């Protein structure tokens, strides 16, 4: 079992090597949610995520003989970065097995920290099974990403910091993959402040913990693509599941569009970069995935290692979710002046046309008409509604493509 005393010991052990990340109040998010919202920015750690805490504390437990043997782990990226970075600092050889789908930035960063990299499989679980095979072959010490009491204790140091930085907190919202982070946080905070609410958040496409809690036992789920690759786990931890069953008040899920929108809000409003998993807690909060009467709520922004090749697509999806990007299909008469009239309505309403395409071959209407597909930059959902109403008033048949 992981105890408050274990977590306090971890705090003392890693204090000098891990950044005390800020806990800032967001007036913008507070107004949007009706709560007093705080953001715990652990995406500002040296390697870009909270994983440094547990990885370092686990590495500090190695005996001299174990240091010589080196360590091995499996990770979708952030745990790999943390192990590679701190193993290098401590002079310990590290091998990391990563899924082939891991974002390039994480692979490059792990390699820069001097770790040996093995790319295997398409999911964390496939990489994990390969790492266990290599563990037996090499004799290296295994450093699990979440199913390890030392790792859980290290992650729990966030819980101590939260109550030190804002003693009046009523609730904390935490991303959940294998469960190491929320297990540590809940253990620390519930012991120090039993009435505090702890809410866990998973990607809707990877709800391993939620399903397991509903079934009362650990369940393995199928695999699919998600923006939140850092919390995409098919099977939760044997150590974390009973802790979460006892201490976590609610477990909720968020959609891909909600994750994208949360990433956008953090970048645009809070000037901080979060990956999909790192934005999950905020996504649940702003989309009201849970209800609590308590007012002072902290959302843990757990990581910021997002692939720049993906961020433009994520921002596009976030803008669409926010109603500031829309695709309209408009049926217009196929004669001179019709397109001019259409664009005139759009211009008068101050929407910006980003892309426009004619379609004559596949139109469902009469032969005298054509369809125009227009992608617009708008001010939000109310603006889109206004545009559709004005187009109808001008004699056009228009619909929104979802």
Structural features, described:
It is a single chain. The model has no long low-confidence stretch (mean pLDDT 93). This protein folds into 3 domains: 4-48 and 149-319, Rossmann fold (3-Layer(aba) Sandwich), CATH 3.40.50; 51-142, Rossmann fold (3-Layer(aba) Sandwich); 324-401, ACT domain (Alpha-Beta Plaits, 2-Layer Sandwich). The protein is α/β, with parallel strands linked by helices and 402 residues long. The two termini are 48 Å apart. The strands form 3 sheets. It has a 6-stranded mixed β-sheet, sandwiched between helices. Helix 1 (4-14) packs across helix 8 (149-155), helix 5 runs parallel beside helix 6 (104-112) and helix 9 (157-165) crosses helix 10 (180-192). The protein contains 17 helices and 14 strands. It is elongated, with a radius of gyration of 24 Å. The protein has helices at 4-14, 27-33, 51-59, 64-69, 78-90, 104-112, 124-138, 149-155, 157-165, 180-192, 208-215, 240-247, 256-268, 280-286, 308-321, 338-348, 381-393, and strands spanning 23-26, 36-41, 71-74, 94-98, 116-119, 141-142, 171-175, 197-203, 250-254, 296-301, 325-333, 352-359, 369-377, 397-401.
Summarize the entry for a quick read.
By secondary structure, this protein is of the alpha/beta class. The protein has 17 helices and 14 strands.
Using the 3D structure, state the CATH architecture of the largest domain: 3-Layer(aba) Sandwich
Q: What structural class do helix, strand and pairing data support? A: alpha/beta
Largest sheet: 6 strands, mixed
CATH fold-level label of the largest domain: Rossmann fold
Uncertain stretches of 5 or more adjacent residues: none
Q: How do the strands line up in the largest sheet?
A: 1-2-10-7-8-9
Question: Mean of residue pLDDT?
Answer: 93
Under the CATH scheme, which class of the largest domain?
Answer: Alpha Beta
Number of domains: 3
The total of beta strands comes to 14
Shape label = elongated
Distance from first to last alpha carbon: 48 Å
Radius of gyration: 24 Å
Helix content: 40-55%
């Amino acid at each position: 079992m992981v105890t408050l005393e274990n977590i306090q010991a971890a705090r003392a052990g890693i204090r000098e090597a891990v950044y005390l990340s800020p806990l800032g109040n967001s007036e913008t998010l507070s107004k949007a949610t009706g709560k007093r919202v705080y953001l715990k920015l652990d995406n500002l750690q040296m390697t870009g995520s909270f994983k440094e805490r547990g990885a370092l504390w686990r590495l500090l437990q190695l005996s001299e003989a174990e240091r010589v043997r080196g360590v091995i782990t499996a990770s979708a990226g952030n745990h790999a970065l943390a192990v590679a970075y701190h193993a290098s600092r401590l002079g310990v050889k590290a091998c990391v097995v990563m899924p082939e789908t891991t974002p390039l930035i994480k692979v490059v960063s792990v390699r820069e920290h001097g770790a040996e990299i093995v790319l295997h499989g398409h999911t964390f679980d496939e990489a994990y099974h390969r790492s266990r095979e290599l563990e037996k072959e090499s004799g290296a010490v295994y450093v699990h990403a979440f199913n390890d009491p030392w790792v859980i204790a290290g992650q729990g140091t966030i819980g101590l910091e939260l109550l030190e930085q804002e003693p009046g907190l009523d609730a904390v919202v935490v991303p959940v993959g294998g469960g190491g982070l929320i297990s540590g946080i809940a253990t620390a905070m519930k012991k120090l402040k039993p009435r505090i609410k702890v809410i866990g958040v998973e990607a809707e496409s990877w709800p391993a913990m939620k399903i397991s809690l509903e079934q009362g036992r650990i369940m393995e789920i199928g695999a699919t693509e998600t923006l939140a690759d850092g919390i995409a786990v098919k099977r939760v931890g044997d150590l974390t599941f009973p802790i979460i069953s006892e201490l976590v008040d609610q477990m909720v899920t968020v959609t891909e569009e909600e994750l994208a929108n949360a990433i956008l809000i953090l970048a645009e409003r809070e000037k901080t970069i979060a990956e999909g998993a790192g934005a999950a807690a905020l996504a649940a909060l702003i989309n009201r995935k849970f209800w609590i009467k308590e007012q002072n709520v902290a959302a843990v922004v757990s990581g910021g290692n997002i692939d720049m090749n993906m961020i433009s697509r994520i921002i596009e999806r976030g803008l669409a979710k926010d109603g500031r990007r829309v695709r309209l299909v408009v049926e217009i008469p196929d004669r001179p002046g019709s397109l001019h009239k259409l664009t005139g309505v759009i211009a008068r309403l101050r929407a910006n046309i980003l892309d426009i395409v004619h379609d004559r071959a596949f139109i469902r209407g009469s032969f005298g008409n054509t369809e125009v597909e227009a992608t617009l930059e708008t001010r939000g959902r109310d603006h889109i509604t206004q545009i559709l109403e004005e187009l109808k008033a001008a004699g056009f048949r228009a619909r929104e493509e979802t």
